[in-house]
Amino acid sequence: MGRAKKGAVMAGDRSSAILIAGTSSGSGKTTITLGLLAALRNFGLAVQPFKCGPDFIDPGLHQLACDRVSRNLDLWMMGEAWVRETFAVARQSSGADISVIEGVMGMFDGQASSSAALAKALGVPVVLILDVRSAAESVAAVLKGFETLDPEVAPVAVILNRVASPRHLELVSGAIRRHCRAEILGHLPQNIDFAMPARHLGLFTGEEQPISAEALAGLAATISAQVNLPRLLELAAGAAPSPAEVDPVRHERVEVQARIGVAKDRAFCFYYEDNFALLRAAGAELVFFSPLADRQLPEGLDGLYLGGGYPELYARELSGNLGMRQAVYDWAESDRPLYAECGGFMYLTEGIAGDDLGVLPMAGVFPVTARMQKKRAGLGYREVRLEKDCFFGPVGAVLRGHEFHYSVIGKMPSHIERIYAVNSSVNSIESREGYRRNNVLGGYLHLHFGFNPQMAGEFVRACRPAGNEKK
């Protein structure tokens, strides 16, 4: 196999794109994607990363590898029109030589939000990560199945992962060449010296710097030595991205109409980059602050946005920051807009409890306690229909998002409004969520504004101080 030589000059086409899919979760997609991002960057290419699906953690790791903000692409949660627009705008605005999309789970897992569906919708070729542990010639049958299940999106190439020996590589490669169409771009040995630390919601976040520069450099060197990067670029140049209708108004700078404080640190780091972009396009100035380190809210704010993350891991520090807890409580009592989701919502409860925590007091806006448990409490896509007017829109507006958490809350008192009717994407079970007290809206759902871009404008208008009527 041809490999990129040290010092080789490599060029990408700005329409170039590739999607890295896997045969299953755990096949090595994230490790190999990070290695590819770092290796391509080392060759002097501008690489724009994307993540298929609703995941928050992988995009942060992508940024560590190539120093560019990664964007989510999720056909169900965002809608196909917004996926196309995000893909087109991010590639154009970043001046990328190549776009690399990391898939989700197995290539065909996830129905409308699968890697295969995304590759087909965007016209992007697929490289499949083929985990060859404990198999030899049978690997060809697996690849053949991926090629024939949907010929329109058959993998153009494979990278073999966890190869045990030269003889193992010979057996696997021979069977693939005899029976399959996809070419082999390279392989990684079973004993690669790289590990991804993990915990209950997945991998560690980019904010926590879980991968050292030395480890990334080593991974990039391994990828450069073992994978034919020039050929990967040739395949990526064959991408034929579907046209996107881009609304320039949603991507141009406008006069600031409201200053919105955004909690962002190690405890609160789960945000969709599109949400920030849409808020800015609607006239928001985003002011980032840390509930861990800052004692008070920034001055001159008109609204607050508390995203998700790992407040349970930093519960003692959050609880001990009395100044910030009081500032957030006072804000909520002032009837000014505050939106909180998942971890941010937990911070607004009376406290976070767990076997090793006791009950650590939080901001106390909602009269319940969030208790951590060992089993998962919620996972999956959710569609929301507003049953009451709120700062995201009128009754009947439809929003979409995702839920993933291990904590549960006690029974919310009946006097606290529920303004969401929530439906799972996989069944007809409907529940009520979106808890509102004063002008505070909180719950476990992570909403993606791209499915209904007007909601960002509605929120900015609700935050806009009296007398500021700029359009």
Q: What is the average of the pLDDT values?
A: 90
Q: Structural class of the secondary elements? A: alpha/beta
What is the C-alpha radius of gyration, as a whole number of Å? Answer: 23 Å
CATH architecture of the largest domain: 3-Layer(aba) Sandwich
* Quaternary state of the chains: single chain
Largest sheet, strands/sense/barrel: 10 strands, mixed
How many structural domains? Answer: 2
β-strand number: 25
CATH domain fold name of the largest domain? Rossmann fold
Can you tell me about this structure?
- This protein has 471 residues and is an alpha/beta fold.
- It folds into two domains: 16-236, P-loop containing nucleotide triphosphate hydrolases (Rossmann fold, 3-Layer(aba) Sandwich), CATH 3.40.50.300; 254-463, Class I glutamine amidotransferase (GATase) domain (Rossmann fold, 3-Layer(aba) Sandwich), CATH 3.40.50.
- It has 14 helices and 25 strands.
- It has helices spanning 29-42, 57-66, 75-78, 80-94, 115-122, 138-149, 166-179, 213-226, 229-236, 273-281, 315-320, 322-333, 343-347, 454-463, and strands at residues 16-22, 47-52, 71-73, 98-102, 126-131, 157-163, 183-189, 198-199, 202-203, 258-263, 268-270, 284-289, 303-306, 308-309, 338-341, 349-354, 358-361, 366-372, 378-386, 398-405, 407-409, 417-424, 430-437, 440-443, 446-448.
- A ten-stranded mixed beta sheet has the order 12-10-13-15-24-23-22-19-20-25. Strands 3-2-4-1-5-6-7 form a seven-stranded parallel beta sheet, sandwiched between helices. A four-stranded mixed beta sheet has the order 17-16-18-21.
- Strand 16 and strand 17 form a beta hairpin.
- Helix 1 crosses helix 8 and helix 6 packs parallel to helix 7 (166-179).
- The longest helix has 15 residues, at 80-94.
- The termini are far apart.
- The model is unreliable at 1-13 (pLDDT under 50).
